[in-house]
């Protein structure tokens, strides 16, 4: 990946910064995008990486103008965008559909679905003009199952899979590949918040339950997602396009609808 430029949104989260670390190991230059400077600073401190191959940019990934801003920042830096991890997302609150707050629905859809669309909308023209590029969108096992109490999140992640397949069909003839990763039970603050909510504050009990849903017998790590993202963005995955990569320890292979 030397001489290649990657953009990673949601770079302050554990999966985002794991992907950044994997891309840096491969020699890429990486523009890290996050909604606050504080989260970027925390990620940089954790990475402890050589700043010569890293840049940061603060943007709200649900707003078109701010997405154009990080695209311009990457092009100003290296003149290219070779790889794009379209990763920013939020889980939203847990509630039955009949009680789900409409403003909360709008917020989750804006980030998880409209944000992914806008990322594709503004990065794809750059890659198509180059005649090359690779994109990975972040879905979820919720892209393949109906998970109770997560209507907005669930709908948005189903939508990400549809966008991935449509984009792959459109951009493939131009030398651009688009795939999706579907993380399962991964040890992140998001999963811990969800498990804490379901198990009435007992996060550890919730995490143990999550691990029992996985044939591997454990939850996964952010690094296990980041490594596969880097692979999909690389030339080693040159014939992978429009695919949904389930990184879940076998959970989807065995779990019923609704978990």
* Spatial arrangement of strands, main beta sheet: 3-2-1-4-5-6-7
Largest sheet: 7 strands, parallel
- Judging by the overall fold, what is the CATH architecture? 3-Layer(aba) Sandwich
What name goes with the CATH superfamily?
A: NAD(P)-binding Rossmann-like Domain
Rg measurement, Å? 17 Å
Q: What would the CATH topology be?
A: Rossmann fold
Q: In sequence order, what are the helices and strands, one letter per element?
A: EHEHEHEHEHEHHHEH
Distance between the termini: 38 Å
Share of helical residues: 40-55%
Portion of residues in beta strands equals 5-15%
What is the structural class? alpha/beta
Low-confidence stretches: none
Number of helices: 9
- Taken together, the total number of domains comes to 1
Question: What's the number of extended β-strand segments?
Answer: 7
Instruction: Name the average pLDDT.
Output: 93
The first-level CATH class is given as: Alpha Beta
Global shape: globular
Provide a descriptive summary of the structure in words.
By secondary structure, the chain is α/β, with parallel strands linked by helices. Helix content is 48%, strand content 15%. It has helices at residues 14-25, 37-47, 64-78, 102-130, 151-171, 189-198, 203-212, 222-233, 251-254, and strands at residues 5-9, 29-34, 54-58, 83-86, 133-138, 176-183, 244-247. Strands 3-2-1-4-5-6-7 form a 7-stranded parallel β-sheet, sandwiched between helices. α5 links the parallel β5 (133-138) and β6. The longest helix is centred in the middle third of the chain and has 29 residues, at 102-130. The N and C termini lie far apart (38 Å).
């Amino acid at each position: 990946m030397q001489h290649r430029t990657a953009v990673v949104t949601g770079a302050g989260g554990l999966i985002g910064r794991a992907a950044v670390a994997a891309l840096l190991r491969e020699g890429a230059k990486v523009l890290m995008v996050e909604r606050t400077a504080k989260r970027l600073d925390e990620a940089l401190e954790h990475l402890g990486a050589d700043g010569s191959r890293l840049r940061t940019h603060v943007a709200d990934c649900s707003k078109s103008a701010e997405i154009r801003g990080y695209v311009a920042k990457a092009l100003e830096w290296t003149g290219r965008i070779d790889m794009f991890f379209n990763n920013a997302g939020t889980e939203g609150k847990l509630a039955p559909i009949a009680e789900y707050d409409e403003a909360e629905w709008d917020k989750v859809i804006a980030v998880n679905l409209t944000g992914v669309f806008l990322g594709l909308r503004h990065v794809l023209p750059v890659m198509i003009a180059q005649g090359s590029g690779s994109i990975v969108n972040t879905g979820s096992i919720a892209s393949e199952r109906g998970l109770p109490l997560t209507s907005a999140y669930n709908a948005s992640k189903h939508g990400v899979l549809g966008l991935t397949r449509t984009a792959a069909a459109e951009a493939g003839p131009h030398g651009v590949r688009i795939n999706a990763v579907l993380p399962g039970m991964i040890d992140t603050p998001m999963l811990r918040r969800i498990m804490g909510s379901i198990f009435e504050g007992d996060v550890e009990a919730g995490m143990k339950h999550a691990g029992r849903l996985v044939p591997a017998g454990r939850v996964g790590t952010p690094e296990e997602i980041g490594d596969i993202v880097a692979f999909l963005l690389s030339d080693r995955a040159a014939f992978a396009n429009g695919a949904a990569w389930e990184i879940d320890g076998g959970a989807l292979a065995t779990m019923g609808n609704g978990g």
